[in-house]
Amino acid sequence: MSANLQLPERNCGFVNRSDVLRAATERVLAAPEGNRTIVIGGAPGCGKTATGIELAHRLQGYFTDGLLFARFAADPLNSVTESEVLYDFLVALGEHPDSIPDRLDARRARYRALTAGRALIVFLDGVATAQQVRALEPGPGSSLIVVTESRPVTPADAAGTHLFALKSLDAAAARDMLAGIVGAEAVAAESVEATTIVQMCDRLPVMLSTVGSMIRRAQLRISTPLAEMVERLHDENRRRVVLPTGVVFDAYCRSLPEGTQECHRALGLTAHGGEVSIAALAAAVRQPQYEIAESMIELANAHLVEQLDRTRYAVRDLVRRHARESDDRGPGERRVDEERLLWYFDEGILAADALLAPLRPWRNSMFPELPASTVEFDDADAARDWLRGERISIRAAAEYAFDIARYDLVVRWCVLLWPFYEKEKQLTDFLALHELGADAARRLGQRAALAVLRLQVGFAYYWLYELDTAANEFTEALNEDAGPEITASALEGLGLVRLAQRQQREALDLFRRNHDLARHIGDQRRIVLAIFHRAKAEAPDPALALLEQAADGFAALSGDETENEAKVRYWRGRKLLEHGDLDAATASLASAAAVMSARRRPFDEAHIAAALGDVAVARGDHEQARAEYSRALTTYSDLGFAGLTAEMRSAVDQLP
Question: Which residues contact residue 475 at a Cβ distance below 8 angstroms, ignoring those fewer than 6 apart?
Answer without folding.
Answer: 490, 494
